[in-house]
Design goal:
Elements lengths: L4 E5 L3 H15 L4 E5 L2 H6 L7 E7 L7 H11 L4 E7 L3 H12 L5 E5 L8 H18 L7 E5 L4 H12 L4 E5 L3 H10 L8 E4 L4 E3 L3 H7 L19 H8 L1
Parallel strand pairs: 1-2, 1-3, 3-4, 4-5, 6-7
Antiparallel strand pairs: 6-8, 8-9
Length: 245
């Protein structure tokens, strides 16, 4: 199955370079990143069976506007989320964004350049991807990334299910005592189901994996991205707050 696409169009070379760099750094494990300076060049990069998950576009393109391009994207890829990129202080661009959002032509607007992507770009794109994932799951059109096979009342089975749910990972649970659960174990070559087994879409089989091992197998970052941070919170509750201050 082809990876879903993050599509970005902007006629500013610096913005396109930044989009390619930042989107690749965070999302390239699960999404194909396509960036271009014109809508025509961007769409030419797509295959017939590609699905666009999020489309981003600057408002002032050479022969059209970002709003018009994103509206056209919606006709081609109805499930795609749409983001308009506008320069801070651009009154006309901001007005167009507000109007388009009110008419349902956009999902969000972001200022460009965005500086540290951890502050605006990544949270915005991640939230839109989660919204799209929930919508497609509700429509029954997205395959399960992970299948958990185990005892229904096992505490560990519930912990794994909760972990995947909290991270918006599409998954299913199969009771090892039921025929479908036993069939999945048989297909994976597992003879015992006394511990939960995680079967990944990639073909990996994990026997009662620690949380960190499961996260790594799913491509989730488990270690800090930077070696130095301005604030570190230790523990939770009042004690953690005092330790961080």
């Amino acid at each position: 199955m082809a990876q879903p696409v993050l599509l970005a169009v902007d006629n500013d070379p610096d913005i396109i370079t930044a989009l390619q760099r930042d989107l690749t750094r965070r999302f390239a494990t699960d999404y194909r990143i396509v960036t271009a300076k014109t809508p025509e060049a961007a769409l030419a990069e797509l295959d017939v069976d590609d699905q666009v998950a999020v489309a981003l576009a600057g408002q002032w393109l050479n022969d059209t506007t970002g709003v018009d391009f994103l509206s056209a994207c919606h006709h081609l890829y109805p499930a795609a989320k749409r983001v308009l990129l506008i320069i801070h202080g651009d009154y006309a661009g901001g007005t167009a964004a507000v109007r388009a959002i009110s008419l349902g032509q956009l999902d969000q607007a972001l200022n460009k350049p965005w500086g540290d992507p951890e502050l605006e770009l990544y949270p915005a794109v991640s939230d839109l991807l989660s919204q799209r994932r929930r919508a497609t799951v509700a429509a029954g059109s997205q395959p399960e990334v992970a299948r958990i096979v185990g005892p229904r009342w096992s505490a560990r089975s519930h912990q794994l299910r909760d972990l995947l749910s909290r991270n918006n990972i599409v998954h299913g649970f199969y009771d090892v005592a039921k025929p479908d659960g036993r069939q999945l174990l048989k297909q994976a070559g597992i003879t015992s189901g006394d511990r939960p087994i995680v079967l990944l879409f990639s073909g990996q089989v994990l026997v009662d994996p620690p949380n960190e091992r499961l996260a790594e197998a799913l491509g989730i970052q488990t270690k800090p991205a930077r070696s130095c941070y301005d604030v570190a919170v230790v523990g939770g509750g009042p004690a953690g707050g005092r330790a961080a201050s």
